[in-house]
Specification:
This protein is an alpha/beta fold and about 325 residues long. The protein has two domains: about 5-95 and about 285-300, NAD(P)-binding Rossmann-like Domain (Rossmann fold); about 100-275, NAD(P)-binding Rossmann-like Domain (Rossmann fold). Helices cover about 30% and strands about 15% of the residues. The chain has ten helices and twelve strands. The chain has a seven-stranded parallel β-sheet. A five-stranded parallel β-sheet has the order 2-1-3-4-5, with helices on both faces. Helix 4 (about 100-115) crosses helix 6. The longest helix has 19 residues, at about 285-300. It is elongated, with a radius of gyration of 22 Å. It starts with 6 loop residues before the first strand and ends in a 16-residue tail after the last helix.
Length: about 325
């Protein structure tokens, strides 16, 4: 049974005016605000709960920490080896950005399918240039990962009259998916898709999943979109596929190296749209993550063990 008056250390990602909401969710708790690296490290020695990232440099002082809540939906940055070995449990904000990420994927799909960059270029040149473009109606989308964002994307894709395939461990049916494929049938799914969208978390199992062989299994007319985490797609393999025309194009919000270096060749690819890992940067995303933490905090001080989005630190999600 957890004590009902813990010391909670909140990172500077949270505005000071929200500390009262945290205190109200855990009456009797002491709420500290780590506004800079120095006072965060000092306050960490007293903390039982950390709301935000617990960096490796500060971990030796986290002797009393029993629970860390990540403001990120994908907590892979928190899962460094020393923290995995630490006894503290980890929860995430998974699901907080599902809606805007699915919207972002639809935007990229529409832009790529309609060659929208051509319109933008014509506007800059003030040229009235009409051309025949595509439509999403009747196309097939393959969604790698059927979590919160994957399920919301499936709903939106269905609204555009698309056929929706999914890749995940479980073969249990889900709303708006026409068929699911296990990992060993990845290439079979890829070969059917006009769009492949990566929504899965970055884990040891998914790292490098979309490699040379996977890209070779895609149709030359297909597009690849990633908005979850860089590293799932082999960047070198994707670059070559895009340069060689082995796939038609890509929309990339999550990159293997972030920020994407100015000299990266991805910037200048005519068939690629680059966004700066920005697809879920909305006020509503932030608020949903905060509400997940508040609900978990209420459960924690009540001594409950059913915290939302508890992460298996070994599996990575």
């Amino acid at each position: 049974m957890a004590p009902n008056n813990p010391v909670i250390l909140v990172t500077r990602d949270v505005a000071a005016d929200r500390l009262a909401d945290i205190a109200a969710a855990a009456p009797g708790a002491t709420v500290l605000h780590g506004t800079d690296a120095e006072n965060f490290a000092d306050q960490l020695q007293m903390a039982e709960i950390v709301a935000g990232t617990l960096p490796a440099t500060a971990l030796p002082k986290a002797e009393k920490v029993r629970w860390v809540h990540s403001w990120a939906a994908g907590p892979d940055h928190q899962l460094y080896p020393e923290f995995i070995a630490h006894p503290a449990m980890l929860t995430s904000s998974a699901g907080n950005g599902a809606v805007p990420l699915a919207e972002h994927a639809m935007m990229l799909m529409l832009m790529l399918n309609r060659t929208a960059l051509r319109w933008i270029d014509s506007q800059k040149r003030r040229q009235w240039e009409r051309f025949t473009h595509g439509e999403l109606n009747g196309l097939t989308i393959g969604i790698i990962g059927a979590g919160y964002s994957g399920k919301d994307l499936a709903l939106k894709a269905k609204a555009f009259h698309m056929r929706v395939l999914g890749l995940r461990r479980s073969d249990q049916p889900a709303d708006n998916f026409d068929e699911f494929y296990p990992r060993e049938r990845l290439y079979e799914m890829l070969g059917q898709c006009d769009f492949v969208v990566v929504t899965a978390p970055l884990t040891p199992e998914t790292r490098g999943m979309i490699d040379v062989a996977a890209l070779a299994g895609m149709k030359p007319s297909a597009h690849l979109i990633c908005f979850s985490r860089g590293g799932i797609i082999d960047d070198d393999a994707m670059l070559k596929a895009l340069q060689d025309g082995a796939i038609a194009g890509a929309g990339i919000d999550a990159h293997g190296v972030e920020p994407l270096p100015p000299d990266s060749p991805f910037w200048t690819l005519a068939n690629t749209i680059i966004t700066p890992h920005n697809g879920a940067t909305t006020e509503a995303t932030r608020e949903r993550g905060f509400q997940i933490f508040l609900e978990n905090l209420r459960r924690y001080v009540e001594g409950r063990d059913d915290l939302i989005n508890r992460v298996d630190k070994q599996a990575g999600y």
